[in-house]
Design a protein that fits this description.
Elements lengths: L16 H6 L4 H16 L13 H18 L6 H10 L2 H4 L7 H12 L6 H14 L15 H23 L18 H6 L3 H20 L4 H15 L7 E2 L11 E2 L6 E2 L18 H4 L6 E7 L4 H5 L5 E6 L1 H4 L5 E3 L5 E3 L7 E4 L3 H12 L7 H12 L6 E2 L6 H7 L3 H11 L3 H27 L8 H4 L27 H10 L22 H9 L1 H28 L8 H43 L1
Antiparallel strand pairs: 1-9, 2-3, 4-5, 5-8, 6-7
Helix pairs in contact: 2-3, 3-4, 3-8, 4-7, 6-7, 7-8, 15-16, 15-17, 16-19, 18-23
Length: 615
């Protein structure tokens, strides 16, 4: 295994004159930028960072965007040299462990320390201000304690705006919400940056395509075929042909939450045996199109087991994917080392393998996330709640192709998964009943609120209806709307479920906040876990039949419900009255039952007395 570090270099140097012209850059601009990057490499400024969002490639792209903006502005008062120096050092705080909030201030102090005796004190102060300001939400620099003329203040303020805009432009990256989030054109400070924004998608692709070409030549490997597949996925997504993305657990392995390993930009799962899962995916795939956090992956190929035995023996349904690290860190094979950390070699395309979920769990997860389940059908809601309880382990879905074969091939896995959860979650059905009751009530209230507000019932196929933030959760608590308007797919209804479980005394059984889950946290328990899984095979058929029966019953309920669509929703008053009626009828039933029990007990007592007397 080759564990050598990836060679750091300037990739903009490989841009042709035609490519440079496309982005308003000259050959002289290229030389300026590449010389700064090479200077950074010599000083080891960004070569050892674990943060692949703020690595040397990010710095080079920010430098390029700075030059693009400056060229468009054509303001002779801009001190281009100081501005580029600030761009070169703007994330240096990140390389020494500073948080996102403090890295500007830490970086400014570090720059001041590094540059003593190498620049004038005023230039050091100016660049330090720019580094500090780039990480602040406030755009306006406070010059109150600074010795600058009004003209100098205006110049430095413009330089700060340019640096902030250049940094923001590199966040646009793929022109859709993930993996890093879009750059909001309304928040850009300069008109030049707003004009450049439409070019960022092409620049991103050209830059990383260049990386691939350079590494192909250096390592003698061919990876552009996979890049073409990525291009196809990007194009399909942008044209509305959304592609299935999903990751889930292998039920035979204790899988905990991912945590940072020592390798750049990679994650590690505790408890995963590399011999079982050579390239296990460690990214939550829902992030790719959800806009939540930075962890995205790209599907390359997929495979399926052929029989139930293969599933039970651990031959998973898999997707082979290219992680974003392909673009951000290396082109090499991702391999699990004996200490279960991911390391990069340099001779094979990095692909990772992820296990797939069972047919109906996937189906109902999709339906739940898309709110296309029938919320008047208690069994459907029950199954949806059941799936939501697995939120920690089913990493998510973005969208799915209409391919029934995929569902058919995954359905058989349900037996192993359900049995595994039964082993570790003896009270799970009781929990599900609690959640189901709460969801049923919540749905009624939410639909009533919607009808009262809009004068009509919600159309569940209409995204605008579904995503309206009625209360903190709407139509089954399956979406959580973030303050910026995006949908939080990862946390979803986690808080709400915990509130329900706490209310009914189950909070201790639902671990999540301290990297706990329903599996064991101890990696040494893996062998014990495998013993449990070994018991699944002989018992699987029984569970499989139960799930088939549930599925058939679900289909029957669906047909009945569809034949009787809800003509109108209940008002809050009617909802309350119905609940009261339900309570009254429940009380009467209980009273009658109690009287019946008392009567039977009396009869038994009399008969017993007579029997004893005769004896």
């Amino acid at each position: 295994m080759n564990n050598s570090k990836i060679k750091e270099e300037s990739y903009l140097r490989e841009f042709s004159d035609e490519m440079l012209k496309k982005y308003g850059l000259s050959t002289a601009d290229k030389e300026t930028i590449t010389s700064l990057v090479e200077k950074s490499i010599k000083k080891h400024l960004y070569t050892d960072t674990n943060d692949f969002q703020h690595d040397l490639k990010h710095i080079e792209k920010v430098l390029a965007y700075v030059v693009m903006i400056v060229n468009k502005i054509s303001n002779p008062n801009i001190n281009k040299s100081l501005l580029l120096t600030a761009a070169l050092y703007h994330d240096i705080g990140k390389t020494i462990g500073a948080s996102n909030k403090s890295h500007g201030q830490v970086g400014a102090l570090e720059f001041t320390k590094l540059m003593q005796g190498m620049m004038s004190s005023k230039d050091i102060e100016t660049v330090s201000m720019l580094i500090n300001q780039h990480a602040l939400e406030e755009d306006k620099i406070d010059f109150a304690s600074k010795d600058y003329t009004l003209e100098e203040q205006e110049q430095i303020q413009l330089m700060s705006d340019i640096l902030k805009d250049a940094d923001a432009l590199d966040r646009n990256r793929l022109n859709y919400p993930a993996p890093f989030g879009n750059c909001d054109v309304n928040k850009l400070r300069t008109e030049a940056a707003k004009e450049i924004l439409p070019l960022t998608n092409d620049f991103y692709h050209d830059y990383y395509k260049t990386i691939i070409e350079v590494r192909e030549k250096r390592n003698g490997i061919k990876i552009l075929d996979n890049y073409a597949k990525l291009e196809e996925l990007f194009n399909n997504y942008q044209s509305g042909k959304k592609t299935m993305l999903h990751a889930s657990l292998d039920p035979s392995i204790d899988i905990l939450r991912p945590r940072r390993s020592t390798q750049k930009g990679s994650y590690v799962y505790a408890g995963v045996d590399p011999t079982d899962c050579m390239k296990m995916a460690t990214f939550r795939l829902s992030f790719l199109f959800s806009g939540y956090k930075e962890n995205g992956v790209h599907i390359i190929n997929e495979t399926f087991p052929n029989t139930v035995d293969e599933v039970l023996e651990g031959k998973f349904i898999t997707f082979y994917i290219l992680p974003n690290e392909l673009f951000h860190e290396y082109v090499g094979n991702v391999t699990a080392s004996p200490n279960r950390e991911w390391v990069a070699t340099s001779n094979v395309v990095p692909i990772r393998q992820i296990s797939f979920e069972a047919k109906d769990l996937v189906k109902y997860l999709i339906n739940t996330n898309r709110l296309s389940i029938n919320h008047n059908n208690s069994k459907e809601v029950m199954m949806a709640a059941f799936v939501r309880m697995f939120r920690t382990y089913i990493w998510g879905i973005a969208e799915i192709n209409e391919n029934p074969k995929i569902f058919d091939q995954k359905w058989q896995q349900i037996q192993a998964i359900v049995k595994y959860y039964e082993k570790y979650c003896p009270n799970i059905m009781k929990k599900m009943q609690i959640i189901k009751q709460s969801i049923d009530n919540d749905i009624k209230v939410c639909i009533a609120d919607f009808a009262e507000k809009n004068g009509r019932t919600p159309d569940l196929s209409n995204e605008n209806d579904v995503l309206q933030p009625v209360q903190s959760h709407f139509l089954g608590t399956f979406f959580a709307r973030k303050s910026d308007g995006r949908i939080d797919w990862y946390h979803l209804n986690e808080k709400y479920i915990k509130e329900i479980l706490t209310k009914y005394g189950y909070s201790e059984e639902y671990g999540d906040t301290k990297e706990e889950n329903l599996f064991s946290n101890n990696m040494n328990d893996r062998q014990e876990s495998q013993k449990h899984f070994a018991t699944i095979k002989p018992e699987a058929e029984n569970i499989y039949q139960k799930m088939l029966a549930a599925k058939e019953q679900l289909s029957l309920d669906n047909s009945v419900t569809k034949a009787k669509p809800m003509s109108r929703v209940l008002t809050k008053k009617e909802n309350t009255e119905q609940n009261n009626n339900d309570s009254n009828s429940g009380f009467i039933s209980t009273l009658l039952l109690s009287l019946g029990v008392c009567f039977i007990s009396g009869v038994v007592s009399v008969l017993s007395y007579l029997f004893i007397s005769r004896g």
